[in-house]
């Protein structure tokens, strides 16, 4: 915090995390403090006293896209649920209640889609989208915080999603469930056991800056670099009067919390030991007071040129509320000036012009302060001894604050050096990882080449087998044609042999009949010569038979080829 003049105070504390930044986080997440029960804030309480995350336009777009794809994702999740057995299913209550290693073993068998659905269910509870979500969250948090087995030793064996859910329940911060935020498992364990700041944009080891004051020692998870000493919460507001920093102990407090708890009041500081009380801030961490006019002047000088219209009006409103009850002439003037500028901005005054006017006002009250210092409080000339004492006090105060600044700079230098060493170690680790990845990539490349060679060999074998199959098919066709030709030839030979056999049988039968007729004729001739008469009809029959047999002997031979298609047909 600066002094009222600003020129005599070399240590200008700006709002917290200005040097650290918010880490580029743009997640729309509502948070609940881990050490306070969730409650409904009254309209008079500012959002700065709540643990909130910044909203971004991209979040609305993401919500729209998620709403469009919600039926498909629900259908996929239903399919995943059907493929998971009841024995392997895990609920958020199981994670909060059962032993770490048992749940971790079951979660290792679950698909990623089921684990994402599990995290989304807890996210809905933290967002308040589920009926009785506050009661459910309080029940889960009570289960987790009442367990004595959750320590750094046991949490090492936890599944990553299991650990993220436990940390989200313990801190009430759903950012740990966000897919774009990935902290290392040791960091999550340290956050759970209150050894690291739960603010993802801060992530400092606790106690921060090795501070062992009463607040840093007794409050679990409190970080004096980013959290309010009253509400124990943090937000991402920077370059603003929304935060007040103590000159002496460097702890931070929300302006709203300080006004509400009476930490901003009228009094006197080392700069003004007499006359009407000025507005001062009493730090809860060190119980010492600091004046606020110089603090406000420093913030406006550094940040006002970069504020837009809405931000400038909010800051003027903060300053107006701070100095509303001021009994000091400068404080009252600042209050009136802020009210005047707010009305002018509402009437159309440009924010750049308003910023210039407020900065000119600070220069004017600084000149008035110098004149008042030279002439005394009532315009009277101060006694030489009083002037020397006053100058000595200012010099002593300035030297004290310069020592504080030197200590702060030394601490910051040590911290920066440690951060640099950490970065160097991380770079070495990353270089090792890169070399390992390169070796793994080379190994994979060799494996791919080997697989490609095997594929080419198998393709050549397949082509060879296909060629042999074609040759075998052609050989089978040739053999089939030969078999058909052999069958035709064997049929012809069979028909020829059959006809020859029939012909020989017919010849034998003919010869038999011929011999029989011949015998009959001889018998008939013998009987006629002996004087007996034969039967004329029988004689005529034998004559016809003989003529037929003689005609058969004179007929041409039968061609066996003529009956090759009818081998069983008898001769005429």
TrEMBL record:
Could you tell me where the Polar residues compositional bias lies?
1-10, 64-76, 560-572
Domain named Zinc finger PHD-type is located at: 227-287
Residue ranges of coiled coil: 420-489
Task: Name the SMART domains for this protein.
Answer: PHD
Question: Has keyword Iron?
Answer: no
Region (Disordered), start-end ranges? 1-76, 553-572
Q: Which UniProt keywords apply?
A: Coiled coil, Metal-binding, Nucleus, Zinc, Zinc-finger
Which GO BP terms apply?
maintenance of root meristem identity; maintenance of shoot apical meristem identity; regulation of gene expression; root meristem specification
What this chain does, per the record?
Probable transcription factor.
PANTHER family in alphabetical order: PROTEIN OBERON 2 (PTHR21736:SF37), VERNALIZATION-INSENSITIVE PROTEIN 3 (PTHR21736)
Please state what the protein is called: Protein OBERON
Organism of derivation = Arabidopsis arenosa
């Amino acid at each position: 915090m600066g002094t009222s003049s600003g020129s005599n105070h070399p240590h200008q504390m700006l709002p917290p995390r200005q040097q650290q930044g918010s880490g580029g986080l743009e997640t729309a997440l509502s948070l609940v403090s881990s050490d306070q029960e969730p409650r409904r804030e009254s309209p008079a309480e500012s959002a700065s006293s709540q643990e909130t995350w910044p909203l971004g336009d991209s979040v609305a777009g993401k919500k729209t896209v998620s709403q469009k794809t919600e039926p498909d994702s629900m259908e996929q999740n239903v399919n995943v649920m059907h493929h998971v057995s009841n024995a392997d299913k895990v609920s958020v209550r199981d994670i909060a209640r059962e032993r770490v290693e048992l749940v971790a073993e079951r979660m290792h068998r679950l698909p990623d889609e089921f684990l994402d659905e599990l995290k989304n269910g807890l996210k809905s509870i933290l967002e308040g989208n589920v009926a009785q979500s506050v009661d459910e969250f309080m029940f889960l948090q009570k289960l987790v915080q009442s367990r004595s087995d959750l320590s750094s030793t046991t949490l090492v064996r936890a599944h990553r999603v299991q650990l993220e859910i436990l940390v989200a329940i313990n801190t009430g911060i759903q950012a740990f469930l966000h897919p774009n935020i990935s902290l290392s498992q040791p960091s999550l364990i340290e956050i759970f056991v209150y050894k690291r700041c739960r603010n993802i944009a801060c992530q400092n080891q606790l106690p921060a800056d090795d501070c062992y004051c009463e607040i840093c020692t007794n409050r679990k998870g409190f970080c004096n670099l980013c959290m309010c000493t009253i509400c124990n919460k943090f937000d991402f507001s920077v370059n603003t009067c929304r935060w007040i920093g103590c000159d002496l102990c460097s702890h931070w407090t929300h302006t709203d919390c300080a006004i509400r708890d009476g930490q901003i009041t009228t009094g006197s500081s080392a700069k003004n030991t007499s006359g009407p009380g000025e507005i001062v801030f009493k730090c809860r961490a060190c119980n010492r007071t600091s004046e606020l006019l110089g603090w406000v002047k420093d913030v406006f000088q550094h940040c006002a040129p970069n504020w837009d219209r809405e931000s400038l009006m909010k800051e003027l409103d903060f300053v107006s509320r701070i100095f509303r009850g001021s009994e000091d002439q400068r404080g009252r003037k600042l209050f009136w000036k802020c009210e005047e500028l707010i009305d002018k901005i509402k009437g159309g005054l440009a924010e750049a012009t308003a910023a210039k006017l407020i900065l000119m006002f600070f220069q004017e009250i600084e000149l008035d302060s110098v004149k008042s210092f030279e002439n005394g409080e009532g315009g009277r000339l101060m006694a030489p001894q009083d002037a020397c004492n006053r100058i000595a006090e200012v010099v002593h105060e300035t030297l004290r604050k310069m020592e504080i600044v030197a200590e702060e700079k030394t601490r910051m230098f040590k911290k920066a050096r440690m951060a640099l060493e950490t970065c160097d170690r991380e770079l070495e680790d990353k270089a090792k990882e890169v070399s390992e990845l390169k070796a793994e990539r080379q190994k994979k490349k060799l494996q791919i080449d080997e697989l490609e060679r095997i594929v080419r060999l198998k393709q050549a074998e397949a082509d060879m087998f296909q060629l042999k199959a074609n040759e075998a098919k052609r050989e089978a066709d040739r053999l089939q044609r030969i078999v058909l030709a052999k069958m035709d030839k064997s049929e012809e030979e069979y028909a020829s042999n059959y006809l020859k056999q029939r012909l020989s049988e017919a010849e034998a039968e003919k010869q038999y009949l011929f011999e029989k007729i011949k015998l009959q004729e001889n018998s008939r001739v013998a009987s006629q010569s002996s004087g007996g008469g034969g039967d004329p009809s029988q004689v005529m029959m034998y004559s016809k038979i003989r003529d037929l047999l003689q005609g058969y002997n004179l007929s041409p031979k039968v061609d066996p080829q003529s009956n090759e298609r009818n081998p069983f047909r008898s001769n005429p």
